[in-house]
Amino acid sequence: MMETRIGAEYEWRCDRGHDRYRATVAEQLTGTGCGKCRANAHAPAALRDAGVAFMNPGLRTRTSMTEQKLRMLLGERIRLHHRVNAVRVARAFFGRTEVWPDIIVPQLRIAIEYDDPGRSRRAHVWLKEASDLEKDEALGEVGWRVIRVRAGGLGPLGPTSVVCSRLTSEVADEVIAMMRRIRGDASVDAIVLPIVDPALFHDDSVC
Predict the structure, then answer these.
(1) Nearest alpha carbon to residue 115 among 75, 160, 161
(2) Are strands 103-105 and 145-150 parallel, antiparallel or unpaired?
(3) Measured between alpha carbons, how far is 69 from 167 in angstroms, rounded to an integer?
(4) Which of 60, 92, 122, 199 is in Cβ range 3.0-4.6 Å of 40 for a Cys bridge?
(5) Domain locations in the chain?
(6) What does the DSSP 8-state code read for residue 199?
(7) What confidence tens digit (pLDDT) does each residue in 15-46 have?
(8) pTM of the entire structure?
(9) Dihedral sign computed on CA atoms, order 30, 35, 41, 42
(10) Which pLDDT tens digit goes with each residue over 58-114?
(11) DSSP letter for each residue of 19-37
């Protein structure tokens, strides 16, 4: 049996797809030994811009019909910013210093994710669930909070999860209520859309 010494150096493969690198067991246990990951996380530009929501024009992600419905339901309740699709983070996440939440509310520094296991029943479980948690941690490090709408039998992934069997107007109301618990009523009220009375559009001249 070969002994693994804490100070011995080995060749490792970066989980985020970077080149292979050499590092000791101690370096690997106490933090990433990948030079690219360390450089990305601590570069001055990355630290300066960390937490900033922005538009990445080259981003191409597929959006499910349910995610679009969630955006529509929330858009009926609060002012959504449609010119941002990414948030800078202070660590490398799959080789990039940005993450792409489903819905971004930059006024509150809140990201909203919709999770369900999909037809394969394998999405957002096991290793993919661990990736979701890492994404939440990366956002948390730069002052953002994540609300996860968990459907299709998925359990909560933290105290700010909203668990449901299917997406409804009531679920959207729960997300808004969660925003209030996270950021307070005053901050949320500042972006809540006014409720329009349908009677204002009634024409009495029409019989």
Answers:
(1) 161
(2) unpaired
(3) 8
(4) 92
(5) 9-42, 50-189
(6) G
(7) 666 778 787 776 665 555 676 666 655 555 55
(8) 0.73
(9) positive
(10) 887 778 899 999 999 999 999 999 899 999 998 888 878 899 999 999 999 999 999
(11) --EEEEHHHHHHS---HHH
